[in-house]
Amino acid sequence: MTDMGKTAGMNSGSAQPADAFADALHPHRSHWGDVWRQFRTHKGAMVGTFVFVGIILVVVFGSYFHTIDPQFLDIRNKNQGMSFAHPFGTDNLGRDMLAQVIAGGRVSLLVGVVAMALSLVLGAIVGVLAGFFKPLDGPLMRLTDLFLALPILPLLLVIILLFRDPLRKQFGPETGVFILIVFIIGITSWMQTARIVRGDVLALKEREFVLAARSIGTRSWKIVLRHIFPNVMSPIMVSATLGIASAIITESALSFLGLGFPSDYPTWGRLLFDGKDFIQLTPTRVLWPGLAISLTVLSVNYIGDGLRDALDPRIRGR
Amino acid sequence: MGSYAIRRLLFAIPTLLVISFIVFGILDLAPGDPTGQLPLTIPPEVREQIREALGFNQPFIVRYGLWLQQFLINEPLNLLEKTCDGTWCADWFASSETRLRVTSWSTRSPVVDLIIERTPQTLWVVGMSYVVGILIAIPIGIVSAYKQYSIFDQVGTFISMIGFSVPTFFTGVLMIVIFSVQLGWFPSVYDTTLVVNDWPSFWLQVKQMIMPVMVLALFNASQLSRFMRASMLDNLSQDYVRTARAKGVAEKIVLLVHVLRNSLIPVITVIALSIPQIFGGAIITEQIFRVNGLGALLINGIQSADYPLVQTLTFLFAVLIVLFNLIADLLYGMLDPRIRYD
Amino acid sequence: MKHLKALLMATAATALVASSAFADGHAKRGGDGQLNIIYWQAPSTLNPYLSGGTKDVESASLIIEPLAKYNETGEMVPALVDEIPTVANGGVSEDLKSITWKFSEGLKWSDGSAFKASDAVFTWKYCTDPAGGCAQVSNFADVENMEAVDDRTLKISFSKAKPFPYGPFVGAQSPIIQEAQFKDCLGAKAPECTDQNFGPVGTGPFVVTEFKPNDVIQYKANDNYRVPDQPAFATVLFKGGGDAASSARSVLETGEFDYAWNLQVEPEILSKMAAAGKGKVVSAYGTSVERMMINQTNPDPALGDKRATLEGGKHPFLTDKNVVKALSLAIDRGILVEAGYGSAGQATCNVLPAPAIYASEANDECKTQNVELANKLLDDAGWVKGGDGVREKDGVRLSVLYQTSTNGVRQGTQALVKQMWQAIGVETELRNLDASVFFGGDPSSPDTFQKFYADIEMYTNNFDGTDPEKYMANWLCSDIPSSKNGWQGSNIQRFCDPAYDALVAEMSKTAALEKRAELAKKMNDMLVQSGSIVPLIHRGGVSAHANTLEGVKMNEWDSELWNAAEWKRKK
């Protein structure tokens, strides 16, 4: 009976009776060691990790090997296909695509991960609080309704109007815009996660293991941390995977509207958007940034899968 | 549960009023001007006259009050009058002549009429894309979870991740290049004047809907199938599944009745959040295929600072969100009787 | 046939009277089926007096017409009259204070009623009603009175001598609407007349059958159109929405549409699409110039309320003519054209590039890039390159913030210019702003082109028709935007020269065309040489039509659809 399930295992605040014993002896090493051991057995997750780390290495260090300035215009060599000098070809102003994909990756990955994390944290907190603490449910969910109903575009214009110049002054043009974009994407995309998590929590808190924990006098916040959170991990993981992709794409929409980074500042979403009309002329222009986004999202998805399995005590023991 | 629903509905009224006030405030703060899209050849003093005629220069609170009155009192009265026209209740209403309706600034016509005109194509295209998306996503999610890490699951994961990570502005153009330009199968421009009254015209309607519906459905199905799969996986390892199997319940019933029902909560949430989105239209896809539905109406309104239009659309949208979130909450209770609402 | 047609036009009046008997004329009208037109901006109303957008004016130009139009070369041609009134033929009074239009005989509205001079008088009253918010009211500037002398004679009196009296009822911006239809729609009631605004009765070749605002218009041929064998098309479908590249695709690649408007996309995309062989790309030039405005005042945020106003003081380095001249010389306009405009752009050094008699040649030096000269100018003026390659003098760095509206072609131009300026030691920060904010003129937004909180900004401007008087008057000292006038002036770059103001005043009093042309050129040269404007591209309109569509005469002076009555299907 390795996977007795949450009812039995959670009472002692740990996964299973056997583990509880082990935990008592080596509480730290054993738990995370188990997680890591389980994670390693997940082939998809390992491949995903390698690809994701690979992408990060390329965008961080790639510019040391491919030294063309991504903003350099070589108008005589515009709309080139793949060649030795320009492995990914050039765009319609003669900028090197590989250099742009590398430079764009830095921004896109950072925006994607940070904005996703922000929206996830917000969404998970709001969702758990609303689902678990009855008095908070009404106000928090009405707030969610409000955010869902807000017209995003005018809201963005207002935020930019109010905060662009102060942020620029404080952090300089690029960091200022970065903070602004991450903030905007974060606060306009947490609602779905919040509603999903709340829905699950509503069902979870009536389950026996929560009742049991309550009956032995476990404090509310402890129940939330030890019993509720681990059980809403899977929708949160899915939201995380999808969140990275939508943050990268939302950023491109913002740039397109003139609300994002300056126009000579490449990002993956922007490269894809600018390239879409050139699809018949120079297909590589959309192929590479599109592939980069997809690979990132796929690898994050597999990492998420592996992580979820590894964190799930019932699967971990298998 | 009935009293819960009624309480929530009553509470929705102040909520919606607050939302409408906040939205109005945001629109008022937003930089933008109804004359912004006019050619530069039109001189500044003429622009000022136009703004004056639109009532753009009136104080915030006056404009908000006017909108509330026009939308919440005059428009329903108009609607009643129209339905009553020529019947027994025709004399109940004063003539509509004196009753100002919410008027769009860019078209100078009643906003409600514009919305009614745009709704059919949005329902057809965006609504159908959700139906198709759900129909694809739920079976894929179930099978992917049941046969976790099988070839089917891997391929499904791959396709849905690609589907989600490639934006619709790109898939739309790609589809047009392949199916309209190269193959010549489907029209690239949606014809809103098409009247479906026989089989050939129905076929035309199907043909012009295929591309926008597929672009959106791919995106929707990708998202939904991920949540479905994750939720199914969570439930498949629960005790009650083993209990049911041990009791000898047929595998099909275990899967499609016990597990599916318990896995639907996150899926219901996503769907409930999506239905208002249908009415919000799909801004990018509508633009690419020129469906010109509610999404295009909203983005046009925002770009031309047509605030009465944006305000009204957003308000209707908020009504739907509040309503469908309530429906979702009630559905949770039905799917899982342990969830209590008092 | 051509001869016959000329004859018909000349005697249009008599032909119309006999139109019911004109058997083969009727046989031809509507013989060519449906015409499909696509505009990527959708018309929101068919009453151009309520919305001045190009899309609204042009879609309405198929229905309602002015007395005279501009043809593809910018000449006035009669539409509802037999000849254009001039001083020579007695139509314009000697003192230039009145003009008398004589309508063609037998004109009818599409509903069959007679077209009268009183309709024109009504149109004037409609547009000048202060409560109506008419977008085209500037066409009626200085009109003191209009009077219907008889049913076919309209006399317009001006409050002062008008050397160019063709403001009212010439060009698609000021068509005549029917009094009987709009009589209850004056002033504040204008917006309530939805049915009228969405389906005006007109004299043009087509009538509306269905109008869906911001989406699609359906027209059918006007049975009462004054030329018996026109229009050749029985119906028109006018679709709106989407973006420029895909509307080009629907004409050039899929062949779903016959005519697509304003295709501002990268030239190589258009030529690739045109290679499919289904249609042609056509372009024509009007008066549009893409230009850089050089801020003469200091946009430094530290100045607070005085930022970018005369009170805030002069710009630290852009008032140095040598700097601006160097900036202009460093730009290779040919490359800008090649990258962003193709057949729809030409390098120009004038802010007033057309019509030909107004075009100065004094500034043509800038058409060829000259980096050496630019560097020399800066060296001589004492701007020395610092360690980071950016020039500076007395602690002032040549670093500019260069803003424009969001638009693919403009961002391409920005990137190219940034690199060209780097070569002469000027650092550039780029910014692009949403067009509806940038051109919106909201006084509370810092991002409008009027506020000009940047060193340099780029956009296009032009003027309606062919007379530049009003346009050149944009740069008066009194028109500088500031908080006092709600940032509403048209003198965006804050240029101020009393000598220029004097020339503007002189032009408004001068009647002789040659003299006016001379004045206009002088003003153009003053502006350009002052270093407050750097003209870049003389922009043309670019559209595409299907190979099977005949008779398209691309026109930048009037509606592009100005001669749609003559369009026909190639057999």
Note down, in words, how this protein is organized.
The complex is a heterotrimer of chains A (318), B (342) and C (571). Chain A has 318 residues and is mainly α. Chain A has one domain (33-68, 95-316): Orthogonal Bundle (MetI-like fold). Chain A has 14 helices and no strands. In chain A, helix 11 crosses helix 12. The longest helix of chain A has 36 residues, at 97-132. Chain B is mainly alpha-helical. Chain B folds into two domains: 35-104, no CATH class; 114-335, MetI-like (MetI-like fold), CATH 1.10.3720. In chain B, helix 5 crosses helix 7, helix 6 packs antiparallel against helix 7 and helix 6 packs parallel to helix 10 (283-289). Chain C has 571 residues and is an alpha+beta fold. Chain C has a domain at 287-466 and 531-540: Dipeptide-binding Protein, Domain 3 (Dipeptide-binding Protein, domain 3), CATH 3.10.105. In chain C, 25% of the residues lie in helices and 20% in strands. Chain C has helices at residues 2-10, 12-17, 23-28, 54-60, 117-128, 179-182, 194-198, 244-252, 267-274, 321-329, 333-340, 371-380, 408-422, 435-438, 469-472, 498-507, 513-529; strands spanning 34-39, 68-70, 76-78, 98-102, 143-150, 153-158, 206-212, 216-221, 235-240, 259-260, 279-294, 345-347, 384-385, 391-393, 396-397, 399-405, 427-433, 456-461, 533-546, 549-550, 568-569. In chain C, strands 1, 7, 8, 9, 10, 11, 12, 16, 17, 18 and 19 form an eleven-stranded mixed sheet that branches. Chain C has a three-stranded antiparallel sheet with strand order 4-6-5, with helices on one face. Chains A and B meet through helix 6, helix 7, helix 8, helix 11 and helix 12 of A and helix 1, helix 5, helix 6, helix 7 and helix 9 of B.
Task: Please give a quick description of this structure.
The complex is a heterotrimer of chains A (about 325), B (about 350) and C (about 575). By secondary structure, chain B is mainly α.
SSE map:
The complex is a heterotrimer of chains A (about 325), B (about 350) and C (about 575).
Chain A: H1 6-9, H2 17-25, H3 27-41, H4 43-65, H5 97-132, H6 134-149, H7 152-187, H8 191-204, H9 208-215, H10 220-228, H11 233-256, H12 268-275, H13 284-311, H14 313-316
Helix pairs in contact in A: 2-3, 3-13, 4-5, 4-13, 5-6, 5-7, 5-8, 5-11, 5-12, 5-13, 7-11, 9-10, 11-12, 11-13, 12-13
Chain B: H1 2-29, H2 44-54, H3 60-84, H4 111-146, H5 151-165, H6 168-182, H7 199-236, H8 239-246, H9 251-280, H10 283-289, H11 294-303, H12 307-335
Helix pairs in contact in B: 1-12, 4-5, 4-7, 4-9, 5-7, 6-7, 6-10, 7-9, 8-9, 9-12, 10-11, 11-12
Chain C: H1 2-10, H2 12-17, H3 23-28, E1 34-39, H4 54-60, E2 68-70, E3 76-78, E4 98-102, H5 117-128, E5 143-150, E6 153-158, H6 179-182, H7 194-198, E7 206-212, E8 216-221, E9 235-240, H8 244-252, E10 259-260, H9 267-274, E11 279-294, H10 321-329, H11 333-340, E12 345-347, H12 371-380, E13 384-385, E14 391-393, E15 396-397, E16 399-405, H13 408-422, E17 427-433, H14 435-438, E18 456-461, H15 469-472, H16 498-507, H17 513-529, E19 533-546, E20 549-550, E21 568-569
Parallel strand pairs in C: 1-9, 1-10, 16-17, 16-18
Antiparallel strand pairs in C: 2-3, 4-6, 5-6, 7-8, 8-9, 10-19, 11-18, 11-19, 12-19, 13-14, 14-15, 20-21
Helix pairs in contact in C: 8-9, 10-12, 11-13, 16-17
